[in-house]
Amino acid sequence: MHTAIVLREAGRPEQLNLESINVPEPSPGEVQVRHEAIGVNFHDVYVRSGLYKTLPLPGIPGLEAAGVVTATGAGVEHFREGDRVAYFTSLYGGYASGRVISQEQLIPLPEAISFELAASHLLKGLTSYALAHEVYTVKPGDTVLVHAAAGGVGSLLCQWAAAAGATVIGTVGSAEKAESARRYGCSHIVLYREKDFVPRVQEITDSKGVQVAYDSVGKDTFAGSLACLAPSGHLANFGQSSGPIPPFEISQLFPKSNSVSRLNVFVHFRDIARRRQAAQALFTAFQDGTLQPSPIQRFALSEAAQAHHSLESRDRQHALVLVP
Ligand SMILES: NC(=O)c1ccc[n+]([C@@H]2O[C@H](COP(=O)([O-])OP(=O)(O)OC[C@H]3O[C@@H](n4cnc5c(N)ncnc54)[C@H](OP(=O)(O)O)[C@@H]3O)[C@@H](O)[C@H]2O)c1
């Protein structure tokens, strides 16, 4: 018997309730997977609260998981029963003890990477990979601004950027997070709830500005991030943890010839071969120590509501997983 968290109506975390579900046999090209660990992401909060209306209700939220193949449909050649796999998908369905999914979504999981590490860091890891290596390629000598530097994606971004030889300025919401951000490779840290980060970045860079600002905070930081850019600098927005960014005038980019992007990691890695390649680079970086993962906090699948309360508290420094 399988169970899943079914969201019937958007709202508070208490809307996340465990129900029994039927997991069908896989159709041609599909694989049945038993989940060992399920990732919890900030995106899930937007879906649960109703800010994103991308999950048809009633529906099973959850973008990523890791587990074991339990059956394969006709025509599946590269996966067999017993294989370890992980995935992230914009089609949801992750908050369940098992599911069927297209073979085209699956990433083989090496023995050295635990189910919990994969489930909690695949989406965040590939988001950080795309941002640091492809949306803007961080170079030695760059100065880089990373908001929410102790957060899931932020902490990985800081580490990729520091490993590439950049000077990393991180913003964080508390003194405890400042300590973590330093461990993740930040040379300069700004407590942005106490101090305006814009003058501090100007001071650190001798008024030259940063080559790239990575901004997942959105409403509260977007204008300041633009102000921090060097000539030809890039603002890579990839989230809106503080709220949606109000419309802005494109002519604001003209004085310093700046550019802005808004990553969607699902679209960016729509090609599964590229997705698997980037996942391999991510797993290697965890294995060779280039990246330290965030500490992982476990909740039972039935405790999804508690996990969401924790996710929404800004004190949290752990990546969260649900365990069926
Ligand atoms: N574009 C994509 O494809 C993509 C993919 C994955 C994730 N994302 C986005 O990336 C962001 C980071 O995701 P994550 O899962 O790694 O989360 P996270 O960074 O661990 O958590 C969000 C952090 O944002 C900061 N924050 C600032 N204002 C906030 C507010 N008003 N409420 C809550 N938090 C606030 C907090 O850090 P401080 O206390 O340090 O300020 C908080 O810890 C999210 O916005 C997510 O949606 C985007």
Protein described:
46% of the residues are buried. With 324 residues, this protein is α/β, with parallel strands linked by helices. The chain has helices spanning 42-49, 115-135, 152-163, 175-183, 197-204, 222-228, 265-268, 272-287, 304-312; strands at 2-7, 16-21, 30-40, 64-72, 84-88, 98-102, 107-108, 143-146, 167-172, 188-191, 210-215, 229-237, 259-262, 296-300, 319-323. 29% of the residues lie in helices and 27% in strands. It has two domains: 2-122 and 287-323, Alpha-Beta Complex (Quinone Oxidoreductase, Chain A, domain 1), CATH 3.90.180; 140-262, Rossmann fold (3-Layer(aba) Sandwich). The protein has nine helices and 15 strands. Strand 14, helix 9 (304-312) and strand 15 form a beta-alpha-beta unit. The strands form three sheets. Strands 3, 4, 5, 6, 7, 14 and 15 form a seven-stranded mixed β-sheet that branches. Bound molecules: NADP nicotinamide-adenine-dinucleotide phosphate. The site of NADP nicotinamide-adenine-dinucleotide phosphate has 27 residues, from helix 1, helix 2 and helix 3.
Bound molecules: NADP nicotinamide-adenine-dinucleotide phosphate
Low-confidence stretches: none
CATH topology of the largest domain: Quinone Oxidoreductase, Chain A, domain 1
Q: Total number of helical segments?
A: 9
